[in-house]
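Hi team, as promised in this morning's meeting, here are the two structures we talked about. I've kept the exact order from the run log so nobody has to guess. The first one is mostly here for context; it's the second one we should focus on when we meet again. Sequence first, then the predicted structure tokens.
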Amino acid sequence: MTLEIRQLTRHDVALMEALLGTFADAFDDADTYNGNRPSAEYLRELLGGDAFIALVALKNGHVVGGIAAYVLKKFEQQRSEICIYDLAVALIHRREGVATALIEKLKQVAAARGAYVIFVQADTGVEDEPAIALYTKLGKREDVLHFDLEVKPLDGAD
């Protein structure tokens, strides 16, 4: 089986929906990825813009992994960073080099867009040990703290 890494465009809504399913399975989080899916028009707009990057790994035309990343334009210099928001590979295709191939393709996309760095967050729990091993192999580790700041709706509803 040949592995194909493909960057999604606005014409690839079906592949983006398949990627959402892959994320749901890989992260065991159906509510987040399947519970309230965006419309096809929303996905077309997202995939057609310049602030979001979606890559899929295909084997025999089926999505077996992917990356969802965001482009962050910087203010202090005329450059950008890319944040890997989600990266997942289907359980039966892990340890086949799929994640590494996805990241290598993202590096090419980043270079073409003039980004100077790609960054990713991994949790310190046991469930993220494979991700930490992968990212350590491919990049420089920085230990940081991450904080989620709650945003309440303007209408006062909770």
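And here is the second protein, the one for discussion:
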Amino acid sequence: MRYIVLSGISQHFLKNLEHSKVKTIEIRSPHNFLSALETNVGDVVFLTSASLEDVRPGTTGVLAKIREKQVAMHRMVQRTEEFYEEAEVQMARLQLEMRGHARVRKAECCALGEATVVDADEMKYFEGR
């Protein structure tokens, strides 16, 4: 089945999602933000700790259903006596519900500004490939 990919996710978050079953993640990295924009509540996404460049056939990850989605602007201000810097960053906040594990069969790399998509098979706990 085809899934939108969120890559470079920390192992700590993935383990927490497996144990808690429902977790919220804030997405700020540009490639994951573009992927998050392409999703809707109810979609199932593929999360992996592998970097975007390393997602290829055989890469394993977690399948999660999006329960809630928010897109917001986050303003950061940094000030010292010498300078004043203000930056605005868009972020997506996704509440995810654990669905299972999957292995990539085919990676469909994205063009600049598009979501990354993979064709992945759900793995059952008894599969030891």
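Starting points for discussion:
The mean pLDDT is 91.
The chain has one domain: 2-118.
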